[in-house]
Design goal:
This protein is α/β, with parallel strands linked by helices. The chain has a single domain, classed as NAD(P)-binding Rossmann-like Domain (Rossmann fold). 42% of the residues lie in helices and 14% in strands. A 7-stranded parallel beta sheet has the order 3-2-1-4-5-6-7, with helices on both faces. The N and C termini lie far apart (43 Å).
Length: 272
């Protein structure tokens, strides 16, 4: 493979790597010669995904049971990565999602929202990226290079009904991405980059009930999304892999502080 696009023998840490999108990205990375460090709270899920990926490429995947909201655990993780792998080439922050209490039902108003659940959603989707980025980027500062990818959303670009907490957090992710890009490049050199990907609508475990009925047909919300997506379909998890590859590779060496839409045209369409 062209060296500009090579990921071979590089070390990439992924939070949320056992989910639908994260799992697809992790598999893509190991198939392209990278070493994947999976971060997560569930040891069972981590081990299952590790076994799956190591079957594809032997000894390609390593797991670390860690809460990405816990500064102490992440500081310990940083030391472990330094000791065991010597360097960290990239970090992909995929931890996040929504919970029922923070999602308004069609017949509810904002007065019905569960504030406690909404705060939890903001925490995991915002600080679940902020904290590991700040702590693990120290490795990149020490070594002088690295690429960080955050996950934004269509909900950061325009009002998406029913998901207030998720929308607020993802809007904050966009400015955090730009802020960190400036902070790291201006103070630590042009080889440390921070960008974000804003996925369109992909069906995963977190949103399946919102978008599909039990019989597999689309809900009213699902149909509305399809109607407003020029490509006329939901995305496949594998369709994020190309953008991840680009942003982690040297092909994007002069790219930082950007948010890339991978959305089938959703964000470009006015609905008319």
């Amino acid at each position: 493979m062209n060296e500009l696009l090579s990921l071979k023998n590089r070390n990439y840490a992924l939070s949320g790597g056992t989910g639908t999108l994260g799992g697809s990205i992790a598999e893509y990375l190991v198939r392209n010669g990278a070493n994947v460090l999976l971060l997560g709270r569930s040891e069972d899920k981590l081990k299952t995904k590790q076994d799956e990926l190591n079957t594809i490429v032997t000894n390609s995947t390593h797991i670390f049971k860690v809460d990405v909201m816990n500064e102490g655990q992440l500081t310990t993780l940083r030391k472990e990565i330094k000791k065991e792998f010597n360097h960290l080439d990239g970090l992909v922050n995929l931890a996040g999602g929504n919970i029922p209490g923070a999602t308004l039902k069609p017949d509810q108003t904002i007065q019905d929202i569960a504030m406690g659940d909404t705060q939890k959603v903001v925490d995991i989707n915002l600080f679940g990226t902020v904290i590991p980025t700040i702590i693990l980027s120290q490795l990149m500062v020490e070594q002088g290079y690295g690429s960080i990818i955050n996950i934004s959303s269509m909900a950061a670009k325009q009002s998406i009904s029913r998901v207030l907490g998720y929308s607020m957090a993802k809007g904050a992710i966009d400015i955090f991405t730009k802020w960190m890009a400036n902070e790291l490049a201006s103070k630590h050199g042009d080889k440390i980059r921070v960008n974000a990907i804003a996925p369109g609508f992909f069906i995963g475990n977190q949103n399946r009930r919102l978008l599909t009925n039990e019989d597999g047909t689309y809900t009213e919300r699902g149909n509305s999304i399809i109607k407003n997506t020029p490509m006329g379909r939901f995305g496949d998890a594998s369709e994020l892999n190309g953008m991840v590859h680009y942003l982690l590779s040297d092909a994007s060496s002069f790219v930082t502080g950007s948010v890339y839409d991978v959305d089938g045209g959703f964000s470009s369409f006015s609905g008319v």
